Each structure stands twice: as C-alpha cells, then as structure tokens.
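User: I'm preparing a small set of examples for a lab meeting where we compare how different chains pack in three dimensions. I only have the primary sequence for this one, and I'd like the structure in token form so I can line it up with the others. Please keep the answer compact; I'll paste it straight into my notes.
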Amino acid sequence: MATEKKLTGKNSSLIAQIIGALWIGGWSAGKFLASIETTTIGDIMMSGVAIAACFTPVYFSIIMDKIKDIKIGGQK
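Assistant: Understood. Below is the structure token output for the 76-residue chain.
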C-alpha cells in the first residue's frame, strides 16, 4: 500500500515561495534581455529585493521561534 503524502501549510508555503521567486526572477530576466540598454541598476536591485521578500515569512518564523525559545526556555 502506497503512503499518501499530505500537503501541509509549511510545504505549500515553501512551494508558493519558490514559484514566486522563479516568477520574479524570470520576469526580471525577460525584461533585462528585452531591453538591455534601458535597464537600470534600480530595476536589478528591486528584483533582488522582491525575491528576498518572498522568503521573508520563513526568516520571520525562524526568528520568532528563537525568541519563543529564549523567552520560555529551551525545551527538548
């Protein structure tokens, strides 16, 4: 009998973040290739910031878990 994998919130969030980062990266690369002469450093920086923003919830969750562990005490 095959085991069924359930899609959890953590897994679906990761999938959405990866798709978002690929979408932004692909869109930015397409824009860059379409108009190399008019691409500014601001466009490149904003695409990097947007990709980083896709993964902000992950980092925020990690930081909040660390704060919770410090506040409550390390429980193992």
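A couple of notes for your slides: DSSP finds three helices and no strands in the chain. Residues 15-72 form one domain.

User: Perfect, thanks.
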